[in-house]
Amino acid sequence: MTPAEMIDVAVDEARKGLAEGGIPIGAALFSSDGMLLGSGHNRRVQQGDPSLHAETDAFRAAGRQRDYRSTVMVTTLSPCWYCSGLVRQFNIGALVIGESRTFVGGHDWLADHGVEVNLLDDERCVAMMTDFIAANPELWNEDIGVAE
Amino acid sequence: MTPAEMIDVAVDEARKGLAEGGIPIGAALFSSDGMLLGSGHNRRVQQGDPSLHAETDAFRAAGRQRDYRSTVMVTTLSPCWYCSGLVRQFNIGALVIGESRTFVGGHDWLADHGVEVNLLDDERCVAMMTDFIAANPELWNEDIGVAE
Fold first, then answer.
1. I want to staple A10 with a disulfide (CB 3.0 to 4.6 A). Which of A24, A26, B3, B119 is the partner?
2. Which residues are in the CMP/dCMP-type deaminase domain (chains A, B) (predicted)?
3. Which candidate from A48, A60, A106 shows the least CB-CB separation from B50?
4. What is the ipTM of this complex?
């Protein structure tokens, strides 16, 4: 499975989140041979749960795994420090990112710590977040811990 | 409320987790004036959910908050990178840690980024984790992403 195919799964999750009235960020965790282990999307609005960023939702959906070194975390947006910390702690081996134009998290830090990072600059991801942030700046700031 | 009083809440959560057959790590999020916003404990075993570390469970229990700068995250154990990333991303202002003898996470990194860190070296926390790790090394390694 190529990064371009993997990101489609995360984009579908982001669109689901948007359709639910949520923040349009999606993610998926794949095994090295392209098997989908779990996917998810940001659920701050839908479940009133600030701990469910897209990456943590996908990680949760994948259930308990004994070894993440050969897995690939795919996310529509550069992972924030919370989600970057997840990737580092669990030794997730690779990261595919839809875009980092609307937000830059910890992906360079992860690359420095040995994670294989593939930044796609996917126009669909950029457009979804650009539109969402313009329409909902307060919600977006809440989601990334930016106080008023 | 003093750090010693705050850590008691996290220790109680860790004990609850242990009684449930889980990993004995507890946490609590307090406002600056000592109001408990949420508390929780590691639920990997109980709910089969690897995303619920003690700190993320407490953060989740506190619900949506608009500004974390004056809050205090209290945890029985030095926070792993996942939970350290949470503290950094949401600009949680202060961290009270029960102990860092059995595991060292990202608390120095957080201090470097302006978080007020108070490391207590609480004997109850050390004893709980020492005993748990000795009895359940595989489960502990799974929880911190250490592969076999």
1. A26
2. 1-117
3. A60
4. 0.97
